[in-house]
Design a protein that fits this description.
The protein is of the alpha/beta class and about 375 residues long. Helix content is about 45%, strand content about 15%. A hairpin with an 8-residue loop joins strand 11 and strand 12. It binds pyridoxal-5'-phosphate.
């Protein structure tokens, strides 16, 4: 059976990226690697829309977020974390592990923080040194309006703006410089279409300045050390050489498609998926959904496990489930990375067959038809 991955990380790896990583390994302290890394670094700046350094760690995306916290914060600092899901919770736990006071702005899972919510918290707590936000909360499929919230923070305080862009970078509009962001993190196994293993972090001048006075313990995840080396197109420690070779190819693909076209493709896939879900009589979970993953509510008449089993066992399509209290309540369809709108037709066709087999009442073909109608109306 043909296997198809519809999970929001790891995401499918295109063949040309696989071939790129299969090239003979290089030693990282020589010109061949430096040339590759120079191209990668310049294309990472394009990806994040920044002139600032973009740092690459041999870690997952969480490592890049940890680098931001330990490098920019100090003992006794208070930060504000907008927490509306599993990943938001992590950005409370990591700073707390380092003794940082976290003022948690709790958002009901599936909902998104508003400008008023953030403005009120900043007003109530003028000591806030940084505001953390998760652009695409993968656990719920919810979107956070980083552009707008960053403006609120900038207008009202000097707090650093730290963004989890793990499932937004390379899928949704991110403009590091124009939006005045201070750190944005991602991981290789998401929009970059690579296997897991790279944590990537864009850092502003303000973040690098905060590093000068930061007194939290740090060594590997030190942005100062990494920024110094990246300026010479190298890394302080052994980089994940083969993944960087894959990243070179991934960024070439993104460049040749054009970043705005990449965002547009994700917007089209997300809209197709949402329309199809509604057409088969199901409901999208998030109030303001992100364009990287669609979380779908499981109605009480259906069983989430049966949906997964049928999708995977009968059709070879792996979906993601719900986490924590959403386990059994939602399933998630990814459209992050190496997909196009016709992949959405495929996953919806699979879902329709599963729903028919599980006796869900709907008109077979209605989901696929909703996508076709949407595509037809685009021209
Ligand atoms: C929004 C978000 N943030 C952070 C992470 C953590 O990234 P990693 O698993 O690469 O550490 C993930 C992973 O799925 C994610 O989706």
């Amino acid at each position: 059976m043909k296997k198809r991955l519809f999970t929001p990380g790891p995401t499918p790896v295109p063949e040309n990226i696989q071939l790129s990583m299969a090239r003979p390994i290089l030693h990282h302290r020589n010109k061949d690697f430096e040339e590759i890394f120079a191209e990668v670094n310049s294309n990472l700046q394009y990806l994040f829309q920044t002139k600032q350094p973009v740092l690459t760690f041999a870690s997952s995306g969480t490592g890049a977020m940890e680098a931001a916290f330990v490098s920019c914060l100090s003992r006794g600092d208070t930060i504000l974390n907008i927490e509306g899901g599993k990943f938001g919770e992590r950005w409370t736990k990591i700073p707390q592990a380092y003794g940082i006071e976290v003022d948690v702005l709790k958002i009901e899972w599936g909902k998104s923080a508003t400008a008023e919510d953030v403005a009120a918290r900043l007003k109530a707590n003028p000591k806030i040194k940084a505001v953390v936000m998760t652009h695409s909360e993968t656990s719920t499929g919810a979107f956070t309006d980083v552009k707008n919230l960053a403006k609120v923070v900038r207008d009202q305080s000097n707090a650093l703006i730290m963004v989890d862009g793990v499932t937004s970078v390379g899928a949704m509009e991110v403009r590091f410089d124009d939006w005045g962001l201070d750190t944005v993190a991602t991981g290789s196994q998401k929009g970059l279409m690579l296997p897991p293993g790279l944590g990537i972090l864009a850092v502003s001048d303000r973040a690098l300045k905060a590093r000068e006075t930061s007194d939290l313990p740090k060594f590997y995840f030190d942005i100062k050390r990494a920024a110094k080396e990246v300026a010479a197109n190298t890394t302080p420690f052994t980089p994940a050489v083969s993944l960087i070779m894959g990243l070179q190819e991934s960024l070439r693909m993104i460049r040749s498609e054009g970043l705005e076209n990449v965002w547009q493709r994700h917007a089209m896939m997300a809209e197709s998926c949402r329309r199809a879900v509604k057409a088969v009589g199901l409901e999208v979970f998030a109030e303001k959904p992100a364009n990287s993953v669609t979380a779908v509510k499981v109605p009480s008449s259906l069983n989430a496990d049966q949906i997964f089993k049928s999708m995977r066992g009968d059709h070879g399509m792996t979906l993601a489930g719900g986490q924590d209290h959403l386990k059994g309540k939602i399933f998630r369809i990814s459209h992050l990375g190496y997909y196009d709108v016709f992949d959405m037709v495929t996953v919806i066709a699979g879902l329709e067959k599963t729903l028919s087999d599980l006796k869900h009442p709907f008109s077979p073909g209605s989901g696929v038809q909703a996508i076709q109608q949407f595509l037809t109306n685009q021209n």
